[in-house]
Amino acid sequence: MSAVDPEDPRQDRPGEQPEGSGRPADDIDAEFARLMEGISLEDDAPLTVEDVLTDTTGEEEVPSVAVIATSVASAKALAGVVRLGREARTDGIDIPVGTRTHDSSTGAIAIGPLAEAAAHDLAAIASTALQRNGIVLFWRRGDRMTATRYKNGERGEDISPAIVLGAVDDLVEELLLGATTLEELGEGLDPSALSRSEALAWIAYGKKRK
Question: b/e string for 111-150 if b means 16 or more Cβ within 10 A?
Fold first, then answer.
């Protein structure tokens, strides 16, 4: 039975190789240093939470905009239409947050910074109240622009935006292209803020306009 004597100078010491192991430790360290010459490990530092949260290598969030073109005489009447359209739906969809109505020379428009699904919800609500009067939903995000017909609460065909943009106020195209922003257009009217009686009154007011 043998024991390690801490006073024995022959015991291994840090930085030294045991006998018979080959090259001295100093030589191995020198060779490693030579191989690593000019190589930096700084970029391999562990990621932090801050690094992940501020990472910009992924796709940046692109603002979206929805514009619904109608033949309704005024923004006030369209706000009432949208409010009653929500009430008439039986599927529980609601007026998307951020929806506003505005006047235009070819009929009132409903707009908002809406995601695609929310934009189609708004179009379904508006066309439910308008019944046989068709509307067109324009939606854009980044390089993608779509146009979809709605009638009597149901989604119709997708069409080329270029085909129908010529039939509506230039304001619609300006909004879709960003030449006019929602902020520049002004506050507009919020359909979700109306009571049922207010919506009916606003629709009646709109019908009187020439």
Answer: bbbbeeebbbbbbbbbbbbbeeeebbbbbbbeeebbbbbb
